[in-house]
């Protein structure tokens, strides 16, 4: 089973953390620090697997984001790479050309999609369609009792100046290249 | 612009996130967050009831703040309220908050459980799934107690929707892993196995994780799953790539399920039923064949998924270890991967081959790849791949290729990454010992190790070479000659000096016949290194010198001259000074006979597990070391030499002069002489009678007399490493009458675990017996273990209870750090409960050296040049317990005028700060 899944940027900013076993906050911080240090220090085109403490670490970079997870000794590294890939595909399917900003601004959605795919560190559903349907059902449910219509994200609003952000890069467009988008 | 979120965008949240991202500094971010927290708090406390949307939005903001790494101490109640909303998104955010910020607040757990219960019985599959997710995410015992009975029912009920079944299966798995005692096997278990036959692939995929876990714990109850798994696997393997529709992943049919099925089969031995076994072998052969087929897609996802199944199949073949045919095919397949252009595959091939190397059927086949593996060690760009190559070389090593492999590893060491050098050194040392046919090769190898990677040669390694040389008289002359030659090098590693000093001190006489290595030449050579060495090495050399006086009386005058010099006899280091004084005295007053007895050659070491192997095991975790030392080759652990006189400190005493309790070793007359003349336990120590006082005396030291009365003296020596401790207790019967029914017990607080080796019930008059207690620190603690001693002396029952001096600081590992690091960490530990402070009056003199010795004795590293005030002391260390490591910083500010101290402790755990502070405050 997976023990944890972390998404962090090339600058080491954590974007998503999911822990599948109880871990103290202190320990979490330690793991996050060690993972980012270790993974970011790896030269490009290194192997995607590492040993760390008693865990296997599998990581992969998609555009500006690193997807990194810790698994137990008997787990299959190659298949875990595909777990990461399937998660990216699911995000992409939901957001349409997913990029790091989608995950920052809709972090709760990223968690919900993950929950449809993994549970307790094990695969819950591998079918892209099935996960898609689950997410859509949820969307439909909320339309039955719609919340106050959210104002669209626009540039006109005083606080919301997203335009200063450098261009983001779609994760799929550069799936396996190293020249991801740079921001921050 | 990020894609606009669908459905339920929360504008306030987006604005907030955007604000945070615009913050230029950490301070600005904290300011913005505090403003937001204040805002949310006032909304939550306000009179106006919040609508569901606002509540959701604020809870979501709190969650975001928490995920940024800030503490959140409110909002839980509002999140719990959201759980009972009938709007899906509100409920969903509520559950997310609870899942991420678990709180064992029992009041809240009851409310949460209530909401979950409602959703589970709602018959709305989406709500049920949310509730199951929450249980799986939190997985606490309270939840297991509440739902472990209900979930199996949902899982096997006929009318449960597939998606709910999937969630229920994995939810149950999570609860079973967390609290196996609460998940009771029952009628449902047999029905769970049949989920392997379910039509819905998603249900099988989820259920098989549960079944695998249950099978590995209760193999007999679940063994019907074997034939079901084989037939399911066979159906997938033989299906066309499009048959499984959505469950085909990049042209590979159901890779996740296939791997899980192969993994499930690894819980069992090969199937006994011939037909089932035949079908399985067929599957495995098909999988191996497919590897040779041209890929159906160029995408890496295709090959990854396909190879994931292949590696899992190979694992199963290795697990069965009974089909030579398949094993050889597996090995050939891995051999192909060893040269694959994908780094990932080379890595995995090296890793899998390690396990294959231990099978008798495939060991030879693995060995044929030796050149490729050596090449990988030399040329792989990625250190983690090189590491696997080194592991594999270690695993494939046997008598036939040991010399080649050890030579390759040695030459690799010259350029090896620093991160893996220590492990490489251990491996070379183990292989060299295990496969040594002639021990001169072994000695050469170890000395080469010291030459190439001296810094990484741990104590265990050089202790071990000494043990072996001492135990094998056929190699002693060679060893003496070789170290003598190695020491000729103008710059040689300190470890070489240690080994050289020890071996020449024991066996220098074997080469003294040659005028080029006459006694005086040997001595001058050793002494030329003396001034460049650290204190422990110098101490060792001094012991070598006194041994020289015994071996070569002609060197006595020269050596006495050296010992007498101010730099020795007035050395500022207590240990060196003491040795110089004692050895000088010993050499001048003892007769030749006494000298010869005291300084005779070390007796052979007892046969035990190699300390190096133990260290490697500890480094890699159990199971990682597949090479076992052969019988008759195992030798004693230098650290626990039967003489009972060695200590684990680097200044390990060769002669045991420092042991407070007389050694129970070879020569009683010499032993008692040493104790009488040189025992460290002076009158002040021996007169200590009251234990509580005694207990506190041992906070900063490990050896001494723990207890003494008219009848009994108890000496103690202890050594600690990481979270483990070993304590030697020496019970001396001071009377001339025997003690009968002598019995000791130790009762430990829950945070410690102890193991005590029982003694014979008789202690003769005047005798001394030794007892070993092993202690493991599970987590930090306050109460010391209690030692209870009962015996009859002349018919009267004696009953003594003592606190054993096991204190939390014994598990310190010193940590060296620079001033900047120290202050950074100090600031990080700024919460009030992390700090403990005491101001107290000095109860002893305020001598600098004494203070330093005490702080070092505490187990921390004494940091120089950190505190701006040179009068102050700062220390750092990490307390090692099984559960966690607790970093600890200390500052001691003496005020000589007022005869006061201020002591400040900071650590990541409040109880630790307090305890260490309390203990240390009694020491000055």
TrEMBL record, chain A:
Task: State its location(s).
Answer: Cytoplasmic vesicle membrane; Golgi apparatus; Membrane, Clathrin-coated pit
**InterPro entries from the entry?**
AP1_sigma, AP_complex_ssu, AP_mu_sigma_su, Clathrin_sm-chain_CS, Longin-like_dom_sf
Gene3D superfamilies to which the protein is assigned, alphabetical: 3.30.450.60
UniProt keywords (A-Z) are: Coated pit, Cytoplasmic vesicle, Golgi apparatus, Membrane, Protein transport, Transport
GO MF terms here are: clathrin adaptor activity
PROSITE patterns (alphabetical): CLAT_ADAPTOR_S
Domain AP complex mu/sigma subunit residue range list: 1-138
| GO cellular component term of the entry, any | clathrin-coated pit
Q: How does it assemble?
A: Adaptor protein complex 1 (AP-1) is a heterotetramer composed of two large adaptins (gamma-type subunit AP1G1 and beta-type subunit AP1B1), a medium adaptin (mu-type subunit AP1M1 or AP1M2) and a small adaptin (sigma-type subunit AP1S1 or AP1S2 or AP1S3).
Q: To which protein family does this belong?
A: Belongs to the adaptor complexes small subunit family.
Q: What is this protein called?
A: WD repeat and FYVE domain containing 1
From TrEMBL, chain B:
Report residues binding a 1,2-diacyl-sn-glycero-3-phospho-(1D-myo-inositol-3,4,5-trisphosphate): 11-12, 43, 53, 57-61
- Biased composition (Low complexity) is annotated at 640-651
Signal peptide positions on this chain:
none
Work out whether the entry's keyword set contains Protein biosynthesis.
no
Q: Name one Pfam family in it.
A: Alpha_adaptin_C
**Biological process (GO) annotations?**
clathrin-dependent endocytosis; intracellular protein transport
Could you name the Gene Ontology cellular component terms for this entry? AP-2 adaptor complex
* Localization (cell): Cell membrane; Membrane, Coated pit
Topology within the bilayer? Peripheral membrane protein
Family stated for the protein in its record:
Belongs to the adaptor complexes large subunit family.
Q: What is this protein called?
A: AP-2 complex subunit alpha
Source organism (scientific name):
Oncorhynchus mykiss (Rainbow trout)
Phylogenetic lineage = Eukaryota, Metazoa, Chordata, Craniata, Vertebrata
